[in-house]
Amino acid sequence: MEIAIFIIILYFVLVFGLSRFIIPHLSFGPDPLPKEIPGDMERKIEELKNKANSSKELLELAFNYLGDRYHSERFNTILKFHYMFKDLDDIWKRTGFIPCNQSNFLMRVFLIKSGFFKEEEVRRKSVFLNFVPHQYLQVKIDDKWINVDVDEKHKGFKIGEHNNKLFTK
To answer: Where along the chain do its domains lie?
Structure first.
């Protein structure tokens, strides 16, 4: 019985504590944005910026674009663990699966680099999901914090919602 309790405690310390110091964009502290971003990403941000008339519209455009391009998957998060450590250029070239820390980093880049949002208006949040940490964002619009779970868009989650259901696909 003591071994089981020890294993459970060790699991929580490693997964929810140590991982925050090792995995990029998952840390407790600030997560600075890069000064330089890929040229085609910069052009896409500019395109969305030109279509948007407000911060809310920009959020919707970025959510739809990134949510259609990328998604998360619980088993791939484990099988493709190394994706959590890929740099911005490599992640940007991909489509399909990327882990939540990477999709949220991309969303932060889009929102803040668009000029519609300041860094303090986009914050990272985490929940316990399928026995691993799951990250989503909160974005401040009109003095209200709105949940944004872009990598769960393919499961039907909309702006204002985040995945916090224990056993999801």
So the answer is: 36-155
